[in-house]
Amino acid sequence: MTGWRGLLSGAGDGTNRALLATIAAAMLAFGLVVGDGFFSFAAMRSMAFQMPELGILSLAMMVTLLSGGINLAVIATANLSALAMAWVLTGFVPGSEGPAWVAWQGAAIAAGFAVAAAAGLLNGVLIAYLRVSPILATLGTMTLLKGLAIGLTRGEVLSGFPEPILYLGNGTLLGVPAGLYLFAATAVLVAIILGRTPLGAAIVMIGSNEKAARFSGIDTRAVIVRVYLMSGLLAGLAALVMMARFNSANAAYGESYLLVTILAAVLGGTNPMGGAGRVGGLVLALVLLQVVSSGFNQLDVSPFLTLAIWGVILLAVTGLAARRAREGTV
Question: According to the CATH classification, is domain 12-328 in 3.30.1450?
Answer without folding.
Answer: no
